[in-house]
TrEMBL record:
Transmembrane segments: 12-32, 38-58
UniProt protein name: Integral membrane protein
Keyword list, A-Z: Membrane, Transmembrane, Transmembrane helix
The keyword Membrane is assigned to this record: yes
Keyword field contains Membrane: yes
Organism from which the protein derives: Streptomyces massasporeus
Length: 74
């Protein structure tokens, strides 16, 4: 099986959007009432958090790559 990079920021963003969709699907199905303005802070906060996670994991990935290759011999 081929290895692939893990992208936790994308995972978090997708999870937040799925939760928002489930909330509104439950509202449309009559299971509960979800106010229309719930999606704005949920999606915005989730995307901001996902961006922060992606930034931090990208920094860690670059630092690990630099440590793996070592200093430039030139």
């Amino acid at each position: 099986m081929l290895r692939h990079e893990v992208h936790p920021g994308k995972l978090l963003a997708g999870s937040v959007l799925i939760v928002t969709g489930v909330l509104y699907a439950g509202d449309a199905g009559g299971a509960w009432e979800t106010p229309w303005f719930v999606a704005i802070p949920l999606v915005t906060g989730g995307l901001c958090l996902a961006g922060a996670v992606a930034f931090l994991t990208g920094r860690a990935r670059r630092r690990r790559q630099a440590r793996r290759t070592g200093p430039d011999p030139a």
